[in-house]
Amino acid sequence: VNLTDLLPLTSCWLTVDNLAPRPNPAEWAVNGKPNGVLGTTDQIIMTAARAQDDWGWEVAYQFECIKIGNQTVSKKSPWLYYANGLDPTWTDTGLLPKTTYTYVVRVAEIRVPGTLAEAGIIVNPTGYTILDANHVKYVSQSDPYNSNWTADSEPASTTTDKDETPPAPIEWLVQPVQQLGLPLSVTMTAAVATDDHPPVRYTFRRYLNFADLVPDTEFEAGQTRTWVDTDVQGGETWTYTFVAEDSVGNVSAEAPRVTVTISAGDINPPTPDPMEWDPDFPPTRQFINGQWWDYMRVVVATDPEGSVVQYQVRENNTGYVSAWQVETDVITGPDGSAYTGLSFFVPAGGQFTVREYQCRARDSSPRQNTTAWSTPPLPPQ
After folding, report:
1. Strand-strand pairing, 172-178 and 186-190
2. What predicted TM-score, i.e. pTM, was given to this entire model?
3. What is the number of alpha carbons within 13 Å of residue 35 lying toward its C-beta?
4. Average pLDDT over every residue of 82-97
């Protein structure tokens, strides 16, 4: 190498680098203009065209939001370096749904002494590296560490994902139904609805008439899928439905409406009350197969609401209390014969033991309305 070989380079030695990276102004990559991230309502992704510097400097990119809707703003990304030929892509997050954002991108030379590694910059090989702003700082064109910047790209706008899809499915897990017993109430449970933008919130509606457009009551259950309506009275008829809403305000259509007529509830015990013995079979002591038994039978009781009636007897001296029986039960007596559930056999413990019996009945409603014990207590005959 001699001086002649070096002469072509003298223009570089004697010229200050005041050339910005190319392209200048910066440009968006093909299909790289800002666009909403699919499946989100608060993110926008963008990619700049890859730039290069004629003087061999590494380059950094900065993306800036300059307008939100019609309002001018200045929200800048850090200066970002992309190694190994990675596309200069950046995602802006934490945005408002269904809102238009406008961006530009610019490129600058990274001016550090030596290589990036020699300058102490740890480079991310698979993504961007955030740089100190001093590494791309404009000082003056005579300063060896002055960074030349491109002009800003043309502005590009996009709107965050307009998610207009409500939660689904909208169906009942448990349709509205009157809970048994008192206090009167109607319970219902919505099936799980899912959405790209959780959490899903549920609102239950109660209508006075099936075709009404305006609900009588709305209960905002939040993320709870069950509502127990306790504001009901016997004889009333109500129609129920629900809607589900995602976190960006999309509200589903109503679930199928279900009408419930409120029963007053079973509050009456069977009759007779107090309960009575069958006059033909009051407690009677019998000697059967070598053992003394007390046999007795109750009258057939009826329930005003028509539910199945159950029967029970007790002996007051020993504290014995029988299990509940229904008339259709088949009881095998100590003599081997079959009896209905109206009959009871109780071991007497001997021929002359003192015993006193009472009987009662209850219905099979959730309240299990029960008669008073028969009176007076009867000793076996």
Report:
1. antiparallel
2. 0.45
3. 12
4. 94
Number of CB atoms found within 10 A of residue 128's CB: 20
Provide the pLDDT for residue 161.
76
Q: In this structure, what DSSP letter does residue 127 have?
A: S
User: What does the DSSP 8-state code read for residue 76?
Assistant: E
Give the sign of the dihedral formed by CA 116, CA 120, CA 126, CA 130.
negative
Find the mean pLDDT for residues 40-67.
95
Comparing CA positions, the residue from 79, 80, 106, 108 lying closest to residue 20 is: 108
DSSP 380: -
Q: Partners of 262 in the beta sheet? A: none
H-state helical runs in the chain: 3-6, 10-13
Burial class (CB in 10 A: 0-12, 13-18, 19+), 252: buried
- Can you tell me the distance from the alpha carbon of 82 to that of 360, in angstroms, rounded to the nearest whole number? 88
- Torsion angle (degrees, nearest 10) of CA 135, 138, 140, 145: 10
Q: Is the pLDDT of residue 13 over 60?
A: no
Tokens 């919130």 map to which residue?
201
Contacts of 107 (CB under 8 A, 6+ apart): 20, 21, 24, 26, 48, 51, 59, 60, 61, 62, 149, 150
Pick from 188, 365, 381: which is nearest to 284 by CA?
Answer: 381
Sheet of 35-36, strand order: 35-36, 44-47, 89-92
3-class state of residue 135 by DSSP: helix
